[in-house]
Q: What sequence folds into this?
């Protein structure tokens, strides 16, 4: 029986025997996006472009199922490439300062910002807080893959 031992690392790259603990995909920005923002698919596009473009996640009553991850880099204008963590660790994500370590996160009332998930939310949790959010509205999180 074959066995494998992996050295777990956040950014493993293509190193043999090393498992990536984070998945990142590249998308086109539909508008300006700040690094750390929760992003969603842009359904104002048509056809398959709806899955190629992202924008800051908006609040939708009881949650937003279009959220696909958290931006790693900023995009200052539409059409720029933004790298999005679709699963795994993100340092300094944009969250409301009321989020505490271990709490589930969904999108909040501010575009691109996460908040503590409420019992009434119908959508999936998008992330888990790994620390208490600070006064500048950021904390480290674990993004839960949803697609």
A:
């Amino acid at each position: 029986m074959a066995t494998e031992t992996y050295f777990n690392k956040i950014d493993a790259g293509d190193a043999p025997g090393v498992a990536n603990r984070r998945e990142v995909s590249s998308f086109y920005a539909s508008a300006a996006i700040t690094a750390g923002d929760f992003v969603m698919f842009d359904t104002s596009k048509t056809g398959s472009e709806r899955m190629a473009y992202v924008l800051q996640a908006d609040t939708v009553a009881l949650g937003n199922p279009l959220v696909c991850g958290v931006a790693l880099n900023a995009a200052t204008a539409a059409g720029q490439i933004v790298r999005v963590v679709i699963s795994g660790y993100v340092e300094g994500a944009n969250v409301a300062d009321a989020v505490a370590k271990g709490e589930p996160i969904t999108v909040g009332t501010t575009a691109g910002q996460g908040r503590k998930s409420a019992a009434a939310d119908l959508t999936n949790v998008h992330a888990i807080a790994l620390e208490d959010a600070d006064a500048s509205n950021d904390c480290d999180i674990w993004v839960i893959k949803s697609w």
